[in-house]
Amino acid sequence: MELSDEQVAVRDAVREFAREEIRPTALEADGEQEFPEAVWDGLAEMDLTGLTVPEEYGGYDADPVTAAVVNEEVAYGMLAVATALSVHSLATSCIAEFGSETQQDRWLPDMADGRPVGAFALSEPHAGSNPAEMSTQAKPDGDEYVIDGEKQWITNGERAGVYILFAKTDRDDPSTVTQFLVPGDVDGLTVGEKEDKLGLRASDTTSLTFDGVRIPAENRLTEEGAGLSAAFHILTGGRIAIAAQSVGLAQCALDEALSYSQERDQFGGPIADIQAVRHKLAEMATRIRAARLLTRDAAGKRAAGGAALEASMAKYFASETAMFATNEAVQIHGGYGYVTEGEVERLYRDAKITEIYEGTTEIQKRVIARELLE
């Protein structure tokens, strides 16, 4: 589980950027519900927007463990930024793994530089945990596809310049789900208003409506019917990214609690001297370490080509750890933890989404049980 010298150097560089450039913007970005574009440009300058882009296209081409380390450190600064980066990386991964050479030449160099931003359009209003029930259709029409339907909960929905879309070529046949590349400026595509969310408020989450959108057949990324298997393959890496982000968020909550408990005086001394508070800190630290090790184990397995079981274990445990750690941080801060001027209130609100997106906790348990039984 030890990092290489190169991985340590990457971690330290991203850690410094997260603490000095990302975190100071977090409260304002959250309050105004606006994504900090200057931070995104900074990530691009560090080559992190090309995290999953091959080197021949100007990307960083990070191995899964390094990618997990980057996600953890960015999430320490602000989960909304880490989420935007991981979804952008899902999009570049799809193009890198399934795209033609022409598609890769067209999109990956610019995406590695941060623009256009990528989005991953899988979920629908009535098809979240079970994407096979999607109703969006990409109907073949000569040398084009005509797309009709709606997607929901799309991260980077407003900012994106390219969408990785999953749609059925036959609306009534779940075996026809196929993966497509849709530019953001096509006619007939409408981006909905940003969702007003509990947490992750700086991230733009929108719906997408496709009304007779026409794309050329060469924008298809997979063979017809191979879309779901491609999505599940890519989402295994996505779940490791969310696990890593959960660890970073939890670590930030622990650091805030450690600092506050040594500064806050009650009953004649700092509350860090109170045994009940010490026990909270001890359990937070232990769970975070366990979550980090699970995440790095999953990333290592991913590098070897597998990791469906380990990714779900890591995502399940790390997201629950994020909820636990942020809840305890609020409790340690007392009233100061409940007001919006403080850091831990935002962390607490942000943590909940980690148990929901990229597959809910219940879906992760289902995957784990399936893998064990098989």
Give Rg in angstroms: 21 Å
Strand order of the largest sheet: 2-3-7-6
Regions with little confidence, pLDDT below 50 for 5+ residues: none
- In what range is the share of β-strand residues? 15-25%
The succession of helices and strands, N to C, reads HHHHHHEEEEEEEHEEHHHH
The helix fraction, in percent, is 40-55%
Derived from helix and strand composition plus strand pairing, the structural class reads alpha+beta
Shape field: globular
* Largest sheet: number of strands, sense, barrel closure: 4 strands, antiparallel
User: How far apart, in Å, are the first and last alpha carbons?
Assistant: 27 Å
Mean pLDDT across the residues is 97
Number of strands: 9
Please give the count of helices: 11
Summarize the structure.
With 374 residues, the protein is of the alpha+beta class. The chain has helices at 5-22, 26-32, 37-45, 64-77, 79-98, 101-112, 227-263, 275-303, 308-333, 343-351, 361-373; strands at 117-121, 137-141, 144-155, 160-168, 177-183, 189-191, 205-216, 265-266, 269-270. The strands form three sheets. A four-stranded antiparallel sheet has the order 2-3-7-6, covered by helices on one side.
Present the secondary structure layout:
Layout: H1 5-22, H2 26-32, H3 37-45, H4 64-77, H5 79-98, H6 101-112, E1 117-121, E2 137-141, E3 144-155, E4 160-168, E5 177-183, E6 189-191, E7 205-216, H7 227-263, E8 265-266, E9 269-270, H8 275-303, H9 308-333, H10 343-351, H11 361-373
Parallel strand pairs: 1-4
Antiparallel strand pairs: 2-3, 3-7, 4-5, 6-7, 8-9
